[in-house]
Amino acid sequence: MAVPAATRWIVTALAAPALTASALTASAIADDNGQAGVHPGSPFRFGDPAAIAFPVGAYPEEYDWDDMRDVTFTVDSVQRSGAGSVRYRLVIETPELGRVFGVNGLRPQCFADGTASDDPADLPGSGELEAGTHTYPLDCAVPADTADLEIGFDHPGPDGEPVAMVFTGAVDPVDPDGS
Length: 179
Hints:
Layout: E1 11-13, E2 44-45, E3 50-56, E4 64-82, E5 85-94, E6 101-102, E7 109-112, E8 115-116, E9 128-129, E10 132-141, E11 148-156, E12 162-170
Parallel strand pairs: 2-12
Antiparallel strand pairs: 1-3, 3-4, 4-5, 5-10, 6-9, 7-8, 7-11, 11-12
């Protein structure tokens, strides 16, 4: 089922409680051709959630396009975990959608100075999420002198087209106790 033009989905940073996926931002909206994602030059910062609105309903033919709920994605706790390695968390908050939320194929990848650091990471565990908060501790190999990092991934939006999300920021030094 095609997404009605009046309810095209939007990806937006949730920097303030008043901003939701229904608020239009210049940084990331679906255009008239159905292309979506974070536009170059406007990635999300580490720790800032990004949201994609999905319709409630168990099956596509039952989707209620007037009842859209935000699934939020946050990359945080980005920290050097030794020479040539960075660890981070991907947090996915899933509202009650009347179905499980699929994350199969969501494979975060790190980029240092615009170069992919290694193969994308597979999320551990089930590819289907119930409503709630789901936290994935992940890591990636990066050059030892990496100070700033981008972590990006795609996730299908409600119409099945991929939505690109890129999170950026500084890499924190290694915690002295190694945790």
